[in-house]
Amino acid sequence: MDPNGHMIQTAVLTRLLDAFASKKATKDLGYFIALKNLEEIGEGRIRETTGEIVFPVVFSGITFKMFKGEIVHGVVRQVHKSGVFLRCGPCENVYLSQYKMPGYDYVVEGNPLFVNENMSRIQIGSTVRFVVLDIQWKEAEKEFIALASLEGNNLGPF
């Protein structure tokens, strides 16, 4: 046997990392980015129904969650006549409607894009600073969708 419990600690840590990697996000905490510290492993308890040993653990990690009214950056993934879809960190579904891009017009010149009178372009690959209008949790997909706007100061492509 391992007198210091290193094998048990390693097994618990491995199981925690597997669980962390498979759980994309939660409504309350947002997207799981990284596990920082494993602070404590509690005493194991046997589940009578399965015979499994369950260890309570305390750990800290890094998460990402957007909030209504927050100003963040995203990268344009798709351009449509009705607006654009952006990716912001791990959040793949941020929608910016054409109605929330004041002064921008839709143009189809080979690759579709939005452009304003200063020739500022919103196209696939552009980085855009936007304000989060609303955010919604999709339980089945374990992910968030967000609505964005460029209405405000210092918002738009850069």
Structure commentary:
The chain is mainly β and 158 residues long. It is 11% helix and 52% strand. It has 1 helix and 14 strands. The chain has one helix at 6-22, and strands spanning 25-26, 30-41, 45-46, 53-54, 57-64, 71-80, 83-88, 91-97, 105-109, 111-115, 121-122, 127-138, 143-149, 156-157. The strands form 4 sheets. A 5-stranded mixed barrel has the order 6-7-8-13-12. A 3-stranded antiparallel β-sheet has the order 1-2-5. Strands 9-10-11 form a 3-stranded antiparallel β-sheet, with no helix packed on it. The radius of gyration is 22 Å and the shape is elongated.
Work out the helicity level.
Answer: 10-25%
Low-pLDDT windows of residues? none
For the termini, the CA-CA separation is: 60 Å
Q: Enumerate the strands of the largest sheet in spatial order, edge to edge or round the barrel.
A: 6-7-8-13-12
The overall average pLDDT, rounded, is 92
- Separate helix tally: 1
The largest β sheet comes out as:
5 strands, mixed, barrel
Helices and strands, in order, run as HEEEEEEEEEEEEEE
The assembly state of the depicted protein chains is: single chain
What radius of gyration results from the CA coordinates? 22 Å
Count every beta strand, where a strand is a DSSP E run of 2 or more residues: 14
Estimate the strand proportion: over 45%
Shape: elongated
- Structural class designation: mainly beta
Offer a concise description of the structure:
The chain has 158 residues and is mainly beta. The protein has one helix at residues 6-22; strands spanning 25-26, 30-41, 45-46, 53-54, 57-64, 71-80, 83-88, 91-97, 105-109, 111-115, 121-122, 127-138, 143-149, 156-157. Strands 6-7-8-13-12 form a 5-stranded mixed β-barrel.
